[in-house]
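Supplementary notes for students who missed Thursday's class. We covered one full example, reproduced here. Read the sequence, then the structure, then the short commentary at the end.
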Amino acid sequence: MEEYLQAVLKEIEKSTFTVVLTGAGMSTESGLPDFRSKTGWWKNVDPTTIATPEAIDNNYDFFWEFYKTRVDLLKQTEPHKGHQILAKWEKENHIQLVATQNVDGLHQLAGSEQITELHGSIRTFSCHNCAWQVDEHSFMLKEQCQNCGGKLRPNVILFNEQLPVHEWEKTVQAIEQASLILVIGSSLRVSPVNQLPAITSGKTVMINKEIDDWHSAFDYHLEGSAKEILEWLDTRLSEHE
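Structure (token representation):
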């Protein structure tokens, strides 16, 4: 582990363009559940019955209750030290983009500015029918759209929906020119985001609590807490500056 940490530290120091790709494991240390672990959101719920456009049409009460619970949980959640370190690295020009699968907005709250939200945001809301933008209060009260009478939803990307084109294209362009990709807290099981590390010609690093055969193509693997690993790297970077 120490050898890999030192090697990754050197890669960060010499990289001219670094992209960070984060997944649910980046947010678990702020107290948010992930999706596929033994304690994740999908342990007791089949995602194809709830996180889909069809659920809005056919079982809106179930859909609304699930996302209301997640919005409520965010009110008790703050970025952790790892989020703050990534924001610090952006200001120090160590990283050029954070591309995230997370919809919680914790990177922005920590101070990161160069961000693409590949799966949307649970902090903004709209009408499922006409895309009329509404506030959180309207969604939490389960109001109807004042523009067309449709059902309200958070602006997250549901299963079978297309990723936001601008966010996707910006991420692809950044990864194509990157000399280093840091994947933090993502299982890389969800398409098409799981294809992104393969398009870089730069070095690739996987930081995750569980490393398995799925991640064998990466140049470096750091298994453990995202926050603790980022803290270790940040301390050494500061010492070298």
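Commentary. The radius of gyration is 18 Å. The CA atoms of residues 13 and 240 lie 9 Å apart. If anything here is unclear, bring it to office hours.
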